[in-house]
Request: fold
Amino acid sequence: MKQEEEDEAHEFLGNFINVIDPSDINKNGRDKKKKTKKEKKKEKREHLKEKRKKKRPEEKKRKKEKKREALLKILNNLNEEEKIAFLKERKLSEIKKKEEKKQFLIKSYNEGYKICFNCSFQNLMEEKEISSLAKQIFLSYHYMLKKKVPVQFHFTHMNDNDDISSTLKKYSFDKWMVHIHKDDYWNIFNKDKIVVLSPDASEELEEIKKDEVYIISALVDRSVSKVLKMKKRKE
Reply:
């Protein structure tokens, strides 16, 4: 069971590349072909169009109505006694799922693999970049819940009303089971157990350990060089 958890945690960290938006990573000029202004504008328009489409309230209503219709379809094929039994079983199933989720979150909060977001770069980001970062963090938390990987989330150099935490509130951040620290990570964790993750690292992460803390820079900024991040790691 322990080996299975370690494999899942390793896969979780490995899949961070699927969470982070590739457009937020500084490619240092490695693009094969630069896009023209016209192509960039068209791509931006399509992106905004798709974004607005997904956020339309009508879409949410349709999904809700679809679920309702599916439920009614099932109920229409049942007699009164069967309907009562079905709805009772459905309610019990929902309660069970909520309890399982609660217990999983408690276990993750207390015993999970430690991942720490270093939020000390807030002053280097604009509003748009912080919004992108908040979404990436939300997707990380959602990925943990979806894959049932016990991860203990930590946020250092964070206050209740700073830009990152305020932006995360639209994702119900105040309801997450995470550890929030005002101090920096090097003053909180054992320095011998700190592992800083970076796309610029010269070594690959091959093993995940429960007693180690994996640091991720909470930073989205194409203009920030890897020299700055390396300096932070040395500190």
About this structure: The radius of gyration is 22 Å.
